[in-house]
UniProtKB/TrEMBL annotation, chain A:
Species, as recorded: Actinophytocola xinjiangensis
Domain named Acyl-CoA dehydrogenase/oxidase C-terminal: residues: 176-276
Domain of life: Bacteria
Gene3D superfamilies: Butyryl-CoA Dehydrogenase, subunit A, domain 3
Protein name: Acyl-CoA dehydrogenase/oxidase C-terminal domain-containing protein
Automatic annotation (TrEMBL), chain B:
Acyl-CoA oxidase/dehydrogenase middle domain segment(s): 125-218
UniProt keyword terms in alphabetical order: FAD, Flavoprotein, Oxidoreductase
Full protein name: Acyl-CoA dehydrogenase
Domain Acyl-CoA dehydrogenase/oxidase N-terminal span(s) in chain numbering: 7-120
Native source organism of the sequence: Actinophytocola xinjiangensis
Length: 320, 381
């Protein structure tokens, strides 16, 4: 057991965090929502110059792989408006032909930021029929889907994309963990500052209760993301491991966002507040390819098929 | 960043499972029963583990330990809990009384107490809680009044687990009125349970025998030789003890075992039961990882309330979730114990005991308070 990220990985992530802060942090997401051209004009150069999109998040090089997932986490912390996880989900061997991977469940009508990635493919959450994705125009904003782009799934691609579900799930989990870390920190800081009835609201039991639940959820997701990433790098992550992480990601987001809003009261609902933006912009990450119920059903199917690793492993079931 | 516990730790897990399979009787339901034969099993297990130098693997070599890695130690705790704590009440001596005596004890106290603990031959109980001092432990008031070169103890402790079978009590008493901080004036005494003036009264509880008791001190005499640490500064010792206890029992280990058994039941492959079951599997993995984080932080000397208490919160809530899942899955067939080698045969016992998971060793409200305080102070400093 070694729970430390390498110094190199941490440094690269810190450089990216500084660069993102220089672009305004969450303000960049706000600006991009108002004018989607901001994504390519302002964020793309930073992602290019730091080399984030070329990293192998699951390779043997611990510095590089660690830097990649910490970079994803840093982007998630400010809900940076770029499909970073979709790009990094492409295995390096496939990058000559594929620019981005979207994991889908059925035939999606929209995908986020699909206009930014030329040669994108759609990989089914269960199955291996890979399609090309064609973006039909630019983003048509919806409050909970700010960069939704209408898409059509076209011709079947010959080669499958190995490990797509695991890679995409792990990267989305790091992204979400970054966002939830931001919300938890904001809420804890606000609880200490905001006074009502002559005391900081952090002194009220109900507020402490919420902050503690947020910490358990956010910290748990951090741990499970790193654990599943480690399994994936060793080639030992099963689809059940990936879907377990997915269930945990959706759960953690629900706990953190619901309690986070409650701690802030009315102010957290305002668009000028980062919480509102993080909440809205995170939603597509949580709902694609599938919502919580469906994800749990998919997990159950995988546990039945392959079992589940634990101190006392769950055996596969004979499913006729 | 990697999460393997290491070959040695995994080899130890295999060895412990083999050993327990050999030593535990077919219908092993844990050591907390009235039946003397059952308790004899715990004694045999402890002494066998002691002979194989497994009982105190995490102690330093100079006190009979094997200097095991923190992960081997974790594996030992996981396997013991998963198998219904076959060490019985001895586990307290091993996990915190021994280490606390190493840290604060005189040479004489170490010589007297450490070998019997390491040999699995002694049961300790913890005399901290009082009727008026529960979560607010610092307000404890059991009196120790000066009497020549010693003190006379008078007052009551409560909830004292295993007191009826304990040989020694690790007792917190008040030797002076609090000055400034209310935790000032507390002293720790190591008191033999057969000392005149010490009486135990078992409390009938839904948890079963031995778990909850009252402990009365009626003029029991203690001397300087019984004091652990410094007079009036016992709070230092208590903090050390609570520090050892704070990562808590690896409850997720038994929950993992119960979930694996549940997954073999008819109906576990689908429906609402199947969905709840896989969600619990996710929660069990999360609880284990949060616990590993706390263990790693403690090993590195950087453990804070945030890591310790988030791990506790996840584990104790998991315990209740899995206990309810098990009893509900079994339905009316699970209400009475059915015995057998499977944990599921003891689902009702596990369910009853799980009611205390969020109360014992610091309630979940106190854990939440600690986490929230840690986070808000991180954000304001
Ligand atoms: C199975 C079991 C075994 C035990 N074994 C031992 C033992 O061996 N030795 C020993 O000394 N003790 C033992 N205890 C006692 C245990 O440490 C106490 O039960 C625990 O500290 C809580 O104290 P209490 O039960 O008096 O509850 P109280 O402190 O009275 O709490 C009642 C309720 O009020 C809440 N509350 C209290 N203060 C606050 C606050 N500031 N903010 C918000 N909520 C609050 C609590 O969380 C709880 O929900 C045991 C308990 C159990 C259940």
């Amino acid at each position: 057991m070694n729970r430390a990220w390498t110094a190199t990985a941490q440094e690269m992530a810190a450089t990216l965090r500084t660069a993102l802060a220089g672009l305004g942090g969450v303000d960049l997401a706000r600006a991009a929502e108002a004018d989607p051209a901001v994504r390519a004009a302002r964020l793309a150069p930073v992602l290019d110059s730091t080399g984030v999109l070329d990293l192998d998040a699951f390779g043997a090089d611990g510095d590089e792989a660690g830097a990649a997932v910490l970079a994803v986490r840093a982007c998630g912390a400010v809900v940076a408006p770029w499909p970073v996880t979709r790009v990094l989900a492409v295995p390096p061997a496939a990058r000559a032909e594929v620019d981005a991977v979207f994991v889908v469940d059925g035939t999606p009508t929209h995908l986020d930021h699909a206009d930014l990635v030329g040669r994108a493919v759609a990989v089914p959450v269960a199955g291996d029929r890979v399609h090309r994705v064609r973006a039909l125009g630019g983003p048509k904003r919806a409050p909970l889907d700010p960069f939704r782009v209408a898409v059509a799934l076209e011709s079947l691609v010959a080669a499958p994309v190995p490990g797509a579900l695991t890679r995409a799930t792990v990267l989305d989990a790091f992204w979400t963990a970054g966002a939830l870390g931001s919300v938890t920190r904001l809420a804890a800081g606000y609880a200490a500052d905001r006074r009502q009835f002559g005391r900081p609201i952090a002194s009220f039991g109900e507020i402490r209760w919420r902050i503690a639940d947020m910490a358990v959820a956010a910290d748990g997701l951090d741990e499970l993301s790193a654990y599943t990433w480690d399994l994936a790098r060793r080639g030992r992550a099963t689809p059940a491991d990936a879907l377990a992480l997915r269930v945990a990601t959706q759960d953690a987001a629900d706990v953190v966002l619901r309690n986070g809003h409650q701690v802030f009261g009315a102010i957290g609902l305002c668009e000028e507040h980062d919480l509102a933006v993080i909440d809205r912009h995170l939603t597509p990450v949580l709902l694609r390819p599938a919502g919580a119920q469906r994800t749990t059903e998919l997990l159950l199917a995988e546990v039945n098929r392959h079992g589940f690793d634990a101190l006392f492993p769950v055996a596969p079931r004979d499913v006729g | 960043m990697e999460f393997e516990l290491g070959e040695q730790a995994e080899a130890l897990r295999t060895r412990l499972r083999e050993l327990l399979a050999e030593m535990l009787p077919e219908n092993w339901a844990g050591p907390f029963s009235d039946d003397e034969r059952v308790r004899a099993v715990a004694d045999r297990v402890c002494q066998r583990l002691a002979r194989e130098r497994l009982l105190t693997i995490d102690w330093p070599a100079e006190y009979g330990g094997a200097g095991a890695s923190v992960w081997e130690q974790t594996v030992l705790r996981e396997e013991m809990w998963a198998h219904l704590e076959p060490r019985g009440a001895q586990y307290m001596g091993l996990s915190w009384v021994g280490p606390t005596i190493m840290r604060f004890g005189t040479e004489e106290q170490r010589r007297e107490h450490l070998p019997p603990i390491a040999g699995g031959r002694v049961v300790w109980c913890q005399g901290f809680s009082e009727p008026e001092a529960g979560s607010d432990l610092g307000s404890l008031s059991l009196g120790a009044t000066r009497d020549g070169d010693g003190w006379l103890l008078s007052g009551q402790k409560i909830w004292t687990s295993y007191a009826p079978i304990a040989d020694w009590c690790f007792l917190a008493a008040r030797t002076a009125r609090a000055e400034g901080a209310k935790t000032h004036g507390v002293t720790i005494f190591l008191v033999p349970m057969d000392r005149p003036g010490v009486t135990v009264r078992p409390i009938d509880s839904m948890l079963g025998v031995l778990h909850l008791n009252e402990l009365y001190f009626d003029g029991a005499r203690v001397t300087g030789a019984d004091v652990l640490g410094t007079v009036d500064h016992g709070w230092e010792v208590i903090k050390f003890v609570l520090g050892h206890e704070r990562i808590g029992i690896p409850r997720y280990a038994r929950d993992d075992r119960l979930l694996a058994e549940l997954s073999g039941l008819d109906g576990a492959g689908g429906g609402a039961f199947g969905l709840e079951l896989v969600r619990a599997l996710v929660h069990a993995r999360l609880a284990r990882l949060l616990s590993y984080r706390a263990v790693a932080r403690r090993e590195a000397g950087t453990l804070t309330d945030r890591e310790a208490s988030t791990a506790r919160m996840a584990a104790i809530q998991l315990d209740q979730e899995v206990a309810s899942l098990a009893l509900n899955a079994l339905g009316p067939n699970g209400i009475a114990p059915s015995g057998g080698g499977e944990l599921l045969g003891h689902a009702e016992d596990i369910y009853r005991y799980a009611r205390s998971a969020t109360i014992a060793s610091g309630t979940i409200e106190i854990q939440r308070m600690l986490v929230a305080r840690a986070l808000t102070s991180e954000e304001t400093t």
